Amino acid sequence: MATINGKDIHKLVVACDAGMGSSVMLASTLRKQLGKSGVSVEHTPVNSIPADADLVICHNGLAARARSIAPGTPIVPFQIFLGDPAVTKVVKAIQQGTDLNV
To answer: PTS EIIB type-2 domain location, by residue (predicted)?
Structure first.
């Protein structure tokens, strides 16, 4: 398990695969929640995770593929698209500048 400090997250990527729009809603929600923090939130297919991502959030079912596409980039898997505790921890770490274990 690795640790990243919320202050070190400048580019957050929400990676998806299903194309059902749920991850787009999650990215939009994160943009609103993190707007004052200066963190860029991007939405991208899991196979196109940018190399400069500081942190990737994706559904648990995509975590293994995300790790293979972006080795060395912290991946935070979640179960539910809105209100998942893993995503809440990411938001708090960024807003408070605290450590996040990934």
So the answer is: 10-99
pTM: 0.94
Please pick, among 12, 16, 63, 70, the residue that the annotation labels catalytic. 16
Find out whether 23 and 31 touch, Cβ atoms under 8 Å.
no
Give catalytic status of residue 58 as yes or no.
no
Nearest to 81 by CA among 11, 6, 17, 4: 17
- Residue 12 and residue 34: Cα distance in Å, rounded? 10
The domain spans of the chain are 3-101
Cβ atoms 81, 26 nearer than 8 A: yes
Q: How far apart are CA 60 and CA 100, in angstroms?
A: 17
CATH dotted code for 3-101: 3.40.50.2300
